[in-house]
Amino acid sequence: MPTRLNPYLSFRDDARDAMTFYQSVFGGELNVSTFGEFGGTDDPAESSLVMHAQLETPTGFTLMASDTPKSMGEAATGGSFSVSLSGDDDAELRGYWEKLLDGATVTMPLAPAPWGDEFGMLTDRFGVPWMVSIGAGQQQSR
């Protein structure tokens, strides 16, 4: 397998919901393993939490996530990173943007940017910040 770089998101108790949502946005195959399946917790209340989830999309995206058990402290979501989607396919990227809007807070509407692309930022309903940039060269007239 080639080396790759992909986001690994941390949640507190809602990794399964978040990853199911991302699967509805991007499509693809979602595999989920729980702490209970691998003996990863002594707390029965945490046995159904996600130890590792991996979404492989038809376009080649890989998104991974897990829940953070209470014994490990606070879950590290938001603030220090953004997941960025960029490219030339207006319809594809705009479609992702529209789906990510469900329950999101828009921090910058998807609109023409000074550098020529369309650019927008939002924080989804799970607290994950996203940036979407649609290359100016391929945008369709609206």
From TrEMBL:
<protein>
    <submittedName>
        <fullName>VOC family protein</fullName>
    </submittedName>
</protein>
<feature type="domain" description="Glyoxalase/fosfomycin resistance/dioxygenase">
    <location>
        <begin position="4"/>
        <end position="132"/>
    </location>
</feature>
<dbReference type="InterPro" id="IPR028973">
    <property type="entry name" value="PhnB-like"/>
</dbReference>
<dbReference type="InterPro" id="IPR004360">
    <property type="entry name" value="Glyas_Fos-R_dOase_dom"/>
</dbReference>
<dbReference type="Pfam" id="PF00903">
    <property type="entry name" value="Glyoxalase"/>
</dbReference>
<dbReference type="InterPro" id="IPR029068">
    <property type="entry name" value="Glyas_Bleomycin-R_OHBP_Dase"/>
</dbReference>
